């Protein structure tokens, strides 16, 4: 029975049982600065109110914190930012 935990090691696929090894180069992270981030504005409040639903069990502190996070990262939640 082969040991599957040792199939991938240091950027290589180990297929020595077939007589060859296939090189897999490392994927380098390409960091870039976005200039198209959508920030929350007062005109977005209607969309937030219509789309956000929280259960009655959530206390006010939790609701406030969730709304604060959504507003801070509005680009990830708004319809204009959806891809």
Structure description:
The protein contains three helices and three strands. The protein is an alpha+beta fold. It has one domain. Strands 1-2-3 form a three-stranded antiparallel beta sheet, with no helix packed on it. It is elongated.
Could you give a short description of this structure?
The protein has 83 residues and is of the alpha+beta class.
Write the layout of secondary structure elements.
Elements: E1 8-9, E2 12-15, E3 20-23, H1 45-51, H2 60-72, H3 74-77
Antiparallel strand pairs: 1-2, 2-3
Low-confidence stretches: none
Q: Give the DSSP E fraction (strand runs of 2 or more residues).
A: 5-15%
Helix/strand order, N-terminal first:
EEEHHH
Largest sheet: 3 strands, antiparallel
Report the count of strand segments. 3
Give the termini distance in whole angstroms: 44 Å
| Cα-atom radius of gyration | 23 Å
Percent of residues in helices comes to 25-40%
């Amino acid at each position: 029975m082969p040991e599957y935990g040792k199939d991938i090691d240091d950027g290589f696929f180990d297929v020595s049982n077939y007589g060859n090894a296939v090189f897999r180069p490392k994927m380098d992270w390409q960091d870039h600065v976005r200039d198209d981030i959508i920030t929350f504005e007062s005109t977005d409040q209607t969309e937030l109110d219509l789309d956000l639903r929280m259960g009655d069990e959530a206390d006010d502190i939790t609701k406030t914190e969730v709304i604060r996070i959504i507003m801070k990262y509005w680009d990830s939640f708004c319809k204009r930012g959806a891809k």
